[in-house]
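Students often ask why we bother predicting the structure of a whole assembly rather than each chain alone. The short answer is interfaces. A chain on its own may look different once its partners are present, and contacts between molecules only exist in the joint model. In this exercise we take two input lines together and write out one structure for the complete complex. Read the inputs first and try to guess which parts will touch.
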Amino acid sequence: DQQVKQNSPSLSVQEGRISILNCDYTNSMFDYFLWYKKYPAEGPTFLISISSIKDKNEDGRFTVFLNKSAKHLSLHIVPSQPGDSAVYFCAASEAGEKLTFGTGTRLTIIP
Amino acid sequence: EPEVTQTPSHQVTQMGQEVILRCVPISNHLYFYWYRQILGQKVEFLVSFYNNEISEKSEIFDDQFSVERPDGSNFTLKIRSTKLEDSAMYFCASSGGTTYTGELFFGEGSRLTVL
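Now the answer. The structure tokens for the assembled complex follow.
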């Protein structure tokens, strides 16, 4: 039961360019969405979030877009830096309860 | 910066043995969680804990699993009789403070290897 899907297991982007990571969800009751970044042998680290009442949230180089009608969200990183190389997990929550994670996208920034 | 700490970082155990994984959540947080990640797979929810009781658990969290907050600072996950398929990275997380925003703070994880 994959309620949150990240269809791209990996993505390579040139340093300085824009990285776009995508996420789709099926549960229309999700009302809060988050992106986590994970390095090997470390726990996920919160990156940015968005409530379902908004369609965009920006924090420095990171912007999350939410399209509720399409049940789709994306994370834009611009400009991409080598330190951004990590696995990115999309997660969703319903009424502040547990997070349901996607399968992750491994982002590699090429210097 | 406050953080969630977990011990041990790695535990190797024989099948059938009991294991206790320990976590110290961020001190003013009110909600506590255990997640796990089997190698190469997604991070999966196990259990959430609030006000000294389980608030939600997944189907993974069967009778072999239990959680406890024994002393107001530690939050433990016990697996009574480990199976090979319990081998995974176990992450503790906490959230809350005065307002629950949905953002979870994760520890670095405890790797469990069941032989």
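Check your guess against this: Chain A has a mean pLDDT of 93.
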